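Bumping with the actual sequence this time:
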Amino acid sequence: MSATSSSPIASHQLSVRVNYHETDGQRRVHHANYLNYFERGRVEMLRDAGTSYRELEDTGLMLVVSEMKIRYHSAAQFDDNLVLTTHLVEIRKVRLAHHYQIHRGEELIVDADSIIACIDSTGRPKRLPQSLLVLA
């Protein structure tokens, strides 16, 4: 778990099958594609909590990555079935902290930590909407 918290506020799991276009010449997931998996995890976690990211953007707010720290432990490959676990570990007035783990079976492939900031259309920090603050 992330150093910011010993127990998550909320957790979400998502199954991901590795597509061929996500791999490099050795049929391994290209390292940059893990960022896309983490984003899918955050969006689906919000959706399951009753918040549509699309509707959030329609209000003029956006959630943007301000920090990302990734640790690669092994390589996922084309057609692997992975499980992405997204943990919400901290909520502040204008930011969220997440910890991610991607497993293939029992094997940890990647884990990461992110800070997600809430901004308006001009790029200025804005308070998170009440629908997200109630998760704390």
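The tokens above came from a reply further down the thread. Strands lie at 10-17, 62-72, 81-91, 95-104, 107-119.
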